[in-house]
Amino acid sequence: MYFISENIKYLRAKKKLSQNQLAVQLRLTRNQINSYENGNAQPSIEVLQKLAAYFEVNIDTLISIHLNKSTFKNLVKFEAQKVLEEKMEERDEISANELSILNISEMFRNFQIEMDKKQELKFV
To answer: Model pTM greater than 0.90?
Structure first.
């Protein structure tokens, strides 16, 4: 399932932009933004690149994750998984930035384990 329409609307609202303001920033028309948000049109690859860069998310996240209903933990986990999959396919070295994403994901996992332990202790 794709969430591009909902995500454009969500991210635009999060930045407190009107459709017209976003259109100006991306050098598009308000009608294009409206069509994307209402699911009446799908953005081209070029527009997806502009949207992803402007909102500072990758295209895969913009399309595949319902950002309005996702937690930060789930987003980090998704990003870490994507980095690992890409590196496994490329058999490439992991950059410092990618390693940082993986470390954050590991921190969240450890935090969740600690929280689960504390929760168990409360009920004992």
So the answer is: no
Residues in the chain: 124
The burial of 94, by beta-carbon neighbours within 10 Å (0-12 exposed, 13-18 middle, 19 or more buried), is given as: middle
Burial of 44 (0-12, 13-18, 19+ CB in 10 A): exposed
The distance in angstroms from the start CA to the end CA of the chain is 42
46-58 pLDDT, tens per residue? 999 999 999 988 8
The DSSP code for 69 is G
- In the structure, how many helices (H) and strands (E) does the chain have? 7, 0
Decide: helix, strand or coil at residue 3. coil
